[in-house]
Design goal:
Layout: H1 3-22, E1 76-81, E2 84-89, E3 94-104, E4 110-112, E5 127-129, H2 133-141, E6 145-146, E7 150-153, E8 157-165, E9 170-179, E10 185-194, E11 197-199, E12 202-208, E13 225-230, E14 233-236, E15 247-258, E16 262-283, E17 286-299, E18 306-312, H3 315-321, H4 335-352, H5 355-369, H6 371-386, H7 388-397, H8 408-422, H9 431-449, H10 473-488, H11 495-512, H12 517-541, H13 552-559, H14 562-571
Parallel strand pairs: 1-7
Antiparallel strand pairs: 1-2, 2-3, 3-4, 5-12, 6-8, 8-9, 9-10, 10-11, 10-18, 12-17, 13-14, 13-15, 15-16, 16-17, 16-18
Helix pairs in contact: 1-11, 4-5, 4-9, 5-12, 6-9, 6-12, 7-8, 10-11, 10-12
């Protein structure tokens, strides 16, 4: 195959892939906004019934005092650690706030994974529910008694228990365990009995996740969505598809909800009954409002030491909790290459301390490793450029023949003989470049989803490598460097190919205006490296050697034996 055909296919593939990757279709809005159902709390019975023995392994209090005060008597219980500041409420013994100290929201405050821009009657995380609506209302609105008013998790593990017992015979207990070694993990046990009969409760999470506001971006930035890992496969469900199948059942390695950078999931292989529901909340001043996923889970038996992860999708953090949990990061089809690149980037940043400069350093190292491939490609393209006049002369002689004409096969034979004579491989100019494409796609996946770049500053006006350049300086610089590099590459003789090569920098500049600035910095650094390498290669291989096309008769004379050549000379 000729070089221009291979190059055209390559460029078309790159344009289509990058265009689709950088400009995914926006999610369809959910046509019907739904709100979590809340039932009214019934009046408890006047007759107090004695509590029966708790199920085996539970923490139900045998002689708990009668509680069930009105909701306005609720108070907060603080759990503070090095990485998380959590606030539980005595109302339902639920989670009121879970702030990540190392990650900031749009206002620069610690990011809270528990939504606050939701209806006031929305269910909070770790709320217990039952099949009986009255029992669910009391478990969700009743006031639990905490074992402590505040807890500090500095070393080892700490335990917080919430107990509930009302006059109708409903008894419940929740135990939360926190670990300094795994700050984003909460281990939960729960036990419920109603009139002495054990109840297998559903753990309701309520709306998730964070603010629910999706920033307009042409890079990967999904709204909160259902997430579960089952049968070795990670499944994410678009919010508009939840209504079609709101229930999932089976043995899950992890399950819950996630967004771009964070997740709230149950971790550990266990049979679960999951239920999901989409929730759209209008917000003044925000065009699309906020989008959440309401989800709940029921174990086959009352949960004992069930682990919940509420935190960042940081590869090392997830791996320390559960090796399968790293699959919550959507690295795409090139994950086999993304993970080593991510580890290398984090290792370099350990010495440099700035992810922008670390990214540039890693880009230089990768291009240094690819130097031989790129050099071979340029040398091959130079050889192809030198014989283009002869190639075109052969093609012109057969131009009037139809593609189906058997005589056109002679053209291919002549071309192959010419390539063999000149020592040129038509594919050697494109194949080395094709080998570099997985690195490009892996870098895009890395920079699009790696939480390490979220809010990571570079220098001057670039304060977030995961966000677009606010001044569009780097995309324009990238386009200029790409244009300069195109001018330095051996020029094609085909006018169509020349036009494509000139349009490419403009197309890429337009697409990269809204790409993460980290990706633009990578591409710009690669272009600058390419310019420098082209200068070195041009110096090594020297200027282009001009070739003249010999007449067909002269080429035929040269191909015959030496005797006939001398005879031809004598005749001339």
């Amino acid at each position: 195959m000729e070089k221009r055909v291979l190059l055209a296919v390559l460029l078309s593939f790159v344009v289509l892939y990058v265009y689709q990757a950088l400009m995914p279709s926006p999610p369809e809005p959910n046509p019907a906004a739904t709100k979590p159902a809340v039932t009214q709390q019934p009046t408890p019975s006047a007759a107090q019934q004695p509590a029966s023995a708790a199920p085996a392994g539970s923490t139900l209090p045998a002689e708990a005092p009668v509680t069930g005060q009105p909701a306005d008597a609720e108070r907060d219980v603080v759990v503070d650690g090095a990485d998380v500041h959590a606030v539980f409420s005595t109302r339902g013994g639920s989670l009121k706030s879970w702030r990540l100290k190392k990650y900031a929201d749009a206002q620069g405050q610690p990011l809270d994974l528990v939504p606050h821009n939701v209806p006031a009657d929305a269910v909070r995380p770790f709320t217990l529910a039952a099949d009986d609506a009255g029992v669910s209302a009391r478990l969700g609105r009743g006031t639990f008694t905490p074992s402590a008013e505040s807890i500090t998790v500095s070393t080892g593990t700490q335990t917080l228990q919430f107990d509930y017992r009302d006059a109708s015979g409903l008894v419940a207990a929740k135990t939360f365990t926190f670990s300094a070694a795994h700050p984003y993990v909460v281990t939960m046990s729960a036990a419920v009995t109603n009139n002495g009969q054990p109840v297998n409760p559903t753990i309701e999470w309520g709306p998730a996740l964070g603010t629910g506001v999706v920033l307009h971006s042409r890079s990967y930035n999904p709204p909160p969505q259902p997430l579960f890992f089952r049968d070795g496969k990670v499944t994410r469900v678009a919010p508009t598809k939840i209504a079609a199948q709101p229930v999932e059942e089976g043995i899950f390695g992890f399950a819950g909800a996630d967004d771009h950078y964070f997740a709230t999931v149950i971790v550990g292989s266990a049979p679960l009954h999951l239920q999901y529901q989409a929730l759209d909340v209008p917000i003044p001043g925000v065009e699309d409002g906020a989008h959440f996923v309401i989800w709940s889970a029921r174990f086959a038996a009352p949960p004992q030491n069930a682990r919940f992860f509420l935190g960042p999708k940081d590869f090392d953090v997830l791996a320390s909790v559960d090796l399968d949990l790293v699959r919550a990061i959507d690295f795409g089809m090139f994950s086999w290459l993304v993970v080593p690149l991510l580890r290398a980037l984090k290792w370099i940043n350990g010495y440099i301390g700035n992810y922008g400069w670390s990214l540039i350093t890693l880009t230089v190292l990768i291009n240094l490793a690819m130097f031989p491939l790129r050099h071979k490609s340029v040398v091959s393209m130079r050889k192809m450029q030198e014989i283009q006049p002869e190639v075109k002369a052969i093609q012109d002689r057969y131009a009037k023949l139809k593609m189906s004409d058997p005589a056109r096969q002679k053209m291919n034979v002549e071309l192959m003989n010419l390539y063999r004579e000149r020592g040129v491989n038509p594919a050697s100019g494109c194949v080395p470049m094709l080998l570099t494409l997985p690195v490009l796609f892996a870098f895009y996946s890395l920079l699009a989803v790696a939480i390490e770049l979220r809010g990571a500053p570079f220098t001057l006006w670039i304060h977030d490598l995961s966000a677009p350049d606010p001044l569009f300086v780097t995309p324009i610089l990238m386009g200029i460097t790409q244009l300069v590099q195109q001018k330095m590459v051996p020029a094609a003789t085909d006018p169509t190919q020349q036009r494509v090569m000139l349009i490419m920098p403009i197309v890429f500049t337009g697409m990269f205006l809204w790409a993460p600035s980290g990706l633009v910095i990578y591409w710009t650094t690669t272009n600058l490296w390419g310019i420098g390498q082209q200068l070195i290669t041009n110096r090594l291989i020297g200027p282009t050697k001009p070739r003249t096309v010999r007449p067909p008769a002269e080429r035929r004379i040269k191909r015959v034996g030496g005797g006939r050549t001398d005879q031809a000379k004598d005749r001339s």
